[in-house]
Amino acid sequence: MLPFTLQQLRILRAIATEKSFTKAANVLFLSQPYLSRQIKALEKTLDVNLVRRNSQIICLTENGEIFLQYTERILALCEESCRALIDLKNGERGNLGVGASQTIGTYLMPRLLALFAQNNPQIKLKVQVNSTRLISKLIVNRQVDLAVVGGQVPKELKQSLDIEPFVEDELNLIISNSNPFAKQKKIKKEDLYHLNFITLHSTSTIRKFVDNILKKNNIEIEQLKIVMQLNSIEAIKTAVSLGLGVAFVSSSAIEKEIKLQTIKILEIENIKITRVLSIISNPNCYKSKAFKLFYKELLILKQNVKKFT
């Protein structure tokens, strides 16, 4: 006999998410006394404290955090088994968890999802947008079915994932039309030292990727003049359009601005910064019909588009 029930696992997960017994009870449509009794029973059976109650914010103990990792995997596997049965019963109906890294999730994925939803209205999509690292973990833990990411998948997770090249995404140097350098279609590498740069923070995956490519092309990135660090692509595009500086931005994020001619792409002589977007999935996960349909759409797009520009 198992020392816990699935209901107890659902309660623990809700408490970890909501950080409140009351909110967790409301989310699960349970009474708070019942929820508290179930957690106490679980702790007694396991002979460990899972929840720290002596603070204003409810949180898990170290034991609770460790147990939560297995809880997530157990519940995800249960949900996966239900999807497999639903597939057999309902044909092409079902649910699909799709993930994307941040830039892709903001600018590219919505178009793909809109088209897929239009062609497959019977499939319910659940979308998660976060860092490549977190999305990769969610797929390993079976909480997301497949994802499109632009960053490097962590080394420790690569063996647990199927990683397939998708399409090429170019990172363009964008500039305001009012900037004197905008009159030039192409600049030399040395000209980079005379520009004011607007960047994401140094911990950003895109920032690290661009810096690495510049270094490989003998650009001393420490000598570049960074006048502003912002925390979003939208803020960066606005700052560039106002003439506050230049920035490297994914081509998928600037389609609207290029059409409206609020910014211009500035080419750099003998330097092209591109990254390969990847499709990632869990090879050990059941591939539902919804998964296969979405994956097929991605492959069709891959065949028709070599890169996003």
Could you name the key traits of this structure?
alpha/beta; 9-stranded mixed β-sheet; two-stranded antiparallel sheet; 13 strands; 309 residues
Describe this structure as you would to a colleague.
This protein starts with 5 loop residues before the first helix and ends with a strand. The strands form three sheets. Strands 3, 4, 5, 6, 7, 10, 11, 12 and 13 form a nine-stranded mixed sheet that branches. By secondary structure, the protein is α/β, with parallel strands linked by helices. Helix content is 45%, strand content 23%. The model has no long low-confidence stretch (mean pLDDT 89).
What's a concise summary of this model?
This protein is α/β, with parallel strands linked by helices.
Give the topology, please.
Blueprint: H1 6-18, H2 21-28, H3 32-46, E1 51-52, E2 59-60, H4 62-90, E3 94-100, H5 102-119, E4 123-129, H6 132-140, E5 146-149, H7 155-158, E6 162-176, E7 186-187, E8 196-200, H8 205-216, E9 225-230, H9 233-241, E10 247-250, H10 255-260, E11 263-268, E12 274-281, H11 289-304, E13 307-308
Parallel strand pairs: 3-4, 3-5, 6-13, 7-11, 8-9
Antiparallel strand pairs: 1-2, 5-12, 6-10, 6-11, 6-12
Helix pairs in contact: 1-2, 1-3, 1-4
Strand portion, in percent? Answer: 15-25%
SS field, number of helical segments = 11
Overall pLDDT: 89
The stretches of 5 or more residues where confidence is low (pLDDT under 50) are: none
Radius of gyration: 24 Å
State the share of residues found in helices, binned by percent. Answer: 40-55%
Order of helices and strands: HHHEEHEHEHEHEEEHEHEHEEHE
CA distance, first residue to last residue: 57 Å
Main β sheet profile: 9 strands, mixed
- Shape call: elongated
Please state the structural category: alpha/beta
Number of strands: 13
